[in-house]
Design brief:
single chain, about 500 residues, alpha+beta, metal ion binding, metal-binding, Znf_LIM
Amino acid sequence: MAYPSRSCDRCSNERRSSFMKWLCTFLKGQKPGEPNRRRPRVTAGEEEDTLWQPPVRPKNDPPRHDNEELDRAIAESLAEDAKPPKERNHKGDSNDEDLAKAIQDSLNMNPYTPYNPYAPSQAQAQAQPRGHRVCGRCKHEIGHGHYLSCMGIYWHPQCFRCCSCGHPIRETEFTLLGTDPYHKLCYKELHHPKCDVCLQFIPTNRSGLIEYRAHPFWGQKYCPLHEQDRTPRCCSCEKMEPRNTKYMSLGDGRSLCMECLGSAVMDTGECQPLYHSIRDYYEGMNMKLDQQIPMLLVERQALNEAMEGESKGPHHMPETRGLCLSEEQTVTSILRRPRIGGNRLLDMRTQPQKLTRRCEVTAILVLYGLPRLLTGSILAHELMHGWLRLKGYRNLNAEVEEGICQVMSYLWLESEILPASSRHAPSSSYASSSSSSYPPTSSKKGGISHTEKKLGEFFMHQIANDTSTAYGDGFRTAYAAVNKYGLRQTLNHIRLTGGFPV
């Protein structure tokens, strides 16, 4: 059995010491001021006197001699090598392990760390150190536990709940509104518009955008296809009827919603009190009509036939609802209110009536089945036509005549639905009694309901926002003249010049 000699141990320790010296020198680098002993490597094609430039370190590169732990290990190794062989401490393994650990730590401190785009910047790391994230829901610190994050917002797992239904969000897809998470379906229920007709979510168009139609007054939203799929629309308030909602068919292509049906005027006898109250309204403004002008409630077909036989007044609305006749005709009027059966009217009784011309105006015709306020506004408009003809206003163009008639319709509606303090008060009324002081016709019945008032506001909105030249532009010009000069002076100017005062 062979035993290793002491000389072998000494050689091994010397070789190890020499290696450690070389390794330390390599890691430490050259001392300041010490010349570089390496010969620069020259590649093919370079000159022999090419100067070798050491690699430029970044400004923030920490110097290697800052590693105190490595320096201490190296110093101890050098001191150990300087001792005589007999005095050397051969703990060996412990010192070598410490030195190896220091070398490993030094190697791990690589100043050329590769760029990681997903790692937080140094400023962010200082502003939000790990364990100091704030939950977007409870606003408490998250700490070092589990958390969820999305777009820079963090949540505790138990706080990641839908802000609508309150249940946890377990799906991989969700919607984030600010810092509030939602289930996709919950968010759609809250923010995706629904059609007021089919009650379904309004679909997107080919461009991926939500496209819908909206009523300018009621704000009713509906799918564009409902404009062509024969969805019933109220002939009075213009609202489309939701699916499975009851409505009334008037039998002539018109439909009436239940709200408008509640105050609808159905026959001539029922309309007479309203007609006389509007005549009183004119008389209260010192615009009395001396002749008794017949008034008839008629069906749509009879009104269209009468309009075709009227030689004067060729300007009419696209949907004619009233007519002031000047020619002798035979007109079929509604004699008795029809009976309601299901969603249609039954037992409509009519009678033909020959209209004889005794003055400039033969009769006033109004479409049946419209709410009281709409019927009254049509009567006020047509009575103004009659007043102009009876007072000798001749050859007025459509914009002037229809414009001033629309003003009278608007003023009557205003007197019905607005309190006296907020009604229109011309600067100089036609007579001593103005529309602002004359009581509304509905005051005898104890006022009007909220639904009827809202309808009246809609009818005023229709007049004010009409886009036609005669009825729309004519009204706005006439209304501005009445506001500035008063009704009496405006009418006198029309008689003299055929136009409105500027």
